[in-house]
């Protein structure tokens, strides 16, 4: 089974999570390609697609959301798993859905997983630094690669079951 892992990442944190997911799927025996979402020209040759993005203000990066929107019909015919990476990863009951939830619903994704991200203040541009100073969120790397690998293992198990049918 051929699997695409595509990420929308501005500073590399989400790209590294996508690479970790790709490693787990590769170790599970799948033929895996890991790409930036902006570089994906087609999903036609893949049996399954894992797509993720950094989240800013409830929105996915444009390259990742456009990948999903531009290939919506083909993605609906494949096994699709989605993940979001950001500082606000906890969803409270009754909370309004964000863009990624809507994309996951529209494409029929099997799951949409949220992972905490990294906020490296020194990498931000002037405008981003101004927003961060005003919001004062925690700074640092909060990524949990054990949780990422655990989720990727679950995806691999589900894909094995589909491949066996």
Notes on the structure:
- This protein is an alpha/beta fold.
- It has one domain (2-164): 3-Layer(aba) Sandwich (Rossmann fold), CATH 3.40.50.
- Helix content is 41%, strand content 25%.
- It is built from six helices and eight strands.
- The strands form two sheets. Strands 1, 2, 3, 4, 5 and 6 form a six-stranded mixed β-sheet that branches.
- It is globular.
- The model has no long low-confidence stretch (mean pLDDT 88).
CATH homology-level superfamily: Flavodoxin domain
Query: Which word captures the global form?
Result: globular
Would you count the extended β strands for me?
A: 8
Query: What percentage of the residues does DSSP assign to strands (E)?
Result: 25-35%
CATH-derived architecture: 3-Layer(aba) Sandwich
> Structurally, how many domains make up the residues?
1
User: What's the Cα radius of gyration?
Assistant: 16 Å
Helix content: 40-55%
Distance between the termini: 12 Å
The H/E string reads EHEEEHHEHEEHEH
Low-confidence residue ranges: none
Write the layout of secondary structure elements.
Elements: E1 2-8, H1 13-27, E2 31-36, E3 48-56, E4 59-60, H2 62-70, H3 72-76, E5 79-86, H4 99-107, E6 111-116, E7 118-119, H5 126-135, E8 140-141, H6 145-164
Parallel strand pairs: 1-2, 1-3, 3-5, 5-6
Antiparallel strand pairs: 3-4, 7-8
